[in-house]
Amino acid sequence: MIITKPTCTIDGQKFEFTAGESMLEVARRNDIAIPTLCHDPRLDPAGACRSCLVEIEGQRRLLPSCATKATDGASFQTKSERVEKHRKTLFSLYLTDHADEDSEGGQHRGAPNKLAGASKKFGAENWGKLTNLRDEIAGDRSADVNPYIQYDSDLCILCAKCTRYCDEVEAVSAITLVGRGSETAIATPDSRSLLDTTCELCGGCVAVCPTGAMGEKKPKTRNQPIESELKKVRTTCNYCGVGCQFDFNVDPDGRDGLGEVVKVTSPDATPNQNMDLPAGFSGVSSDGNLCVKGRFGYDFVHHEERLTTPLVRGADGDLHPATWDEAFDAAIAGLEKVSAKYGDDSLAFVSSARCTIEENFLVQKVSRVAFGTNNVHQCAAT
After folding, report:
1. Is the terminal CB of the chain with fewer CB neighbours within 10 Å at N or C?
2. φ, ψ of residue 246 in degrees (nearest 5)
3. pTM (2 decimals)?
4. Which residues form the domain of 242?
5. Considering the chain, what percentage of its residues have pLDDT values greater than 70?
């Protein structure tokens, strides 16, 4: 028995799809670009920004491709004259209530300004700045005493991507939409500081914001090149054993040409189509999510007190640079000396929660097998 998959037609081309896929997912899987501002594969579709609207045969209105399921035999257009006119008008309207596209907030302190890029691509025009009422409702969020995150209402388009991420992924609901109509804004309950809410300062709102309205406060994010001019270096966070991946954003001209890490960004949460992964999963252990330490705790990289080589105390009582082999030999000799004089149970081994579970397994094996003591612990107690 031959089982055939359902098919739909996109811009005149027929494609197979799996039941339950949205039109946006089918299009992107086949390298057909549809602009989005509020969409994220980790979030439930909201259709809030209206930038992904497509023209579906037999439908009177344009429909959001992110929230419309593909159906067998359906035919839709992503580049029709009607769709192109809608996009130009939509992005022009957004620009009237948005700061200049080259503003510091949109380019430097948050994620790249997707609205600015889409506006240029579709020929949107700024029809004149409208009066912004949101600061009166939400208060001056840039004055929030928290050390990491600021909100600039002049850059906000109310796509609610940040509030949905806070609710659906982090499950803390620290920020929400307040007010109605033109007075709607992003705020905390009773306009409290983020430090007085359930916020974990993970910075996920900064990472998903499509306009830079949610931005970073850290000094290193100021006056830096735009993100596209920074070198991204994929690495693994060393703050715990989970192994979250992130990208160091390096300014090649920083620190007198030696290069300087100026911020951390999440890997793209868009699924890798070349990997057999569950729907919406990006293939990195953190799925594009980071904690406050991973996203904002990178100052140690260039700290003047950071150790970059092992140190071994010499006969003069001072610490001297050594090779790793010399450091291991000194540690082993010291442990064996204590064990011989006071017995194995005089030793205790404490490892770090920064280690992986495999590394912590090796520490307890050294303790129990090599030295015969059960005095071994680490703060995560795995």
Report:
1. N
2. -150, 175
3. 0.83
4. 229-306
5. 87
